[in-house]
Amino acid sequence: MKKILKKIPGLSVLVDSIKASITIIQYSFGIKSIQEEERADPNDSKWKNNPWSQVFVRRCKYAKQFSQKKRVLDLCCGTGWTANELAKVAKVVKAVDYSKESIEKAKKEFQNENLFFEQMNALSLKYPDSSFDTVVSMEAIEHFTENDGKVFLSEVYRVLKKGGYFVGSTPQVETKNPLKILAMKKIDPYHLHLYSKKMLEKSLSAIFNKVEVVSQPEDWMLFKCIK
Q1: pLDDT tens-digit map of 157-171
Q2: Which CATH number fits domain 52-226: 3.40.50.300, 3.40.50.150, 2.40.128.20, 3.40.190.10?
């Protein structure tokens, strides 16, 4: 079907626009409701048969490669599942999130001697310069406006040691169709600025020395940066 749509000029855009319009109506009038998948815990029974739980596991497995015996910051940690997994291999993990509710839940559920949760604003971190070997931030940068995203990256760079790694993930949006972009924001209104692969590479390269962005099958990206 996709091959047929591509052969007819303008038809693919029209179909995307119609689908996007339906989505906008559904979420605007409460026909469909928002699900905060990024706050999920893959160990929770309700996620047992959800394919996205395996996506969380893959992201975490990727981050673990750069966390072995390191001082790690899990930035925008949510309810703490990733931070707890990283603590199994890291020297120490500091995990922060703006949400007081998420941090309180994380503290109750995950308790390790090398794992510390704290409520904090990612745009104004309370850590000294060059505090961490690795900064991990899964599904976070899209939750900031474009300008705040730049501040976010600057703070990551500041607290990261020279030669340290910044690894994370974000949705991949390869469209200029305004209706489709609006539909995506309706599905998750907490996504304030969405990135294409080129946009993300440009934003990261403006701050970091070495940048690698890898597209994933489910329309999201993994990235690795070196200070």
Answers
A1: 999 999 999 999 999
A2: 3.40.50.150
